[in-house]
Amino acid sequence: MAGLLRLPAAAAAVAVLVAVALPAARAGSPAADDAPEYRNHTVGGADGWFFDAKANASSGNYSGWANGETFYLGDYLIFKTNANSSVVHTTNATTYDLCDPTDDLGPATYIYGGGGGGGGGLEQNNTIPVPLVQEGANYFFSDADDGAQCQKGMRFEIKVEHGRGLPPSLKNPPPAPKERVLAPPPAGTAFSGTGGVEPGDGAGDNGGAGRSGAGRAAAAGGRLLGAAVAVALAALVAA
């Protein structure tokens, strides 16, 4: 047949060896059992996640930092920052390119932190932990100062690999906040910046816990108020 590519015997033998070796190579790639342990990555290292308005620049080279790290599902990004800057996490490349989550109503764009802008650097520092729960491209930026911080370098992109997959505590986490709230450190999780993550109760809450916890508290308060009103009415009827 004219269209058939005929390989020399030696080349054919090499092709067979490659075909056999590829599945073995894939089997030897990081699987659930031998993938790296879950880690915390302190964003920007010692530079943190800050913006200096006087210098009109971010405190670190975040794209350069990200290029030197490897990220897996279940890892956490630790943003050491203050109320001048926000943390926007999205898988929407358009939102990232625009430095603006305002019109992004999708479920995969979350806003953590203050984002008040100003860049004075005197505000109380915050620690914002963000879990990596989506495999593939993930984008991070600060939309403070109407996106100016993002445009001046407070942005980076990472590729999240599968690794061990999500730990049980992150398989069904509460939704992260859309409004600007500070994400409290998840209970049972150590944030050392280099050490391993120890998922525990609430390890996947990351800010959603604050909102859902407040909702539960409000609901409980409402039930208590309703019970109090019922008791009062019963007392009036009895009188």
From TrEMBL:
Residues 163-216 are annotated as: Disordered. GO terms for molecular function: electron transfer activity. SUPFAM superfamilies: Cupredoxins. Residues 1-27 form the signal peptide. One of its GO terms (cellular component) is plasma membrane. It comes from the Eukaryota. Residues 39-162 form the Phytocyanin domain. Keywords: Signal. It holds the Pfam family Cu_bind_like. Residues 193-213 have a biased composition (Gly residues). PANTHER family: BLUE COPPER PROTEIN, OS12G0454600 PROTEIN. This is Phytocyanin domain-containing protein.
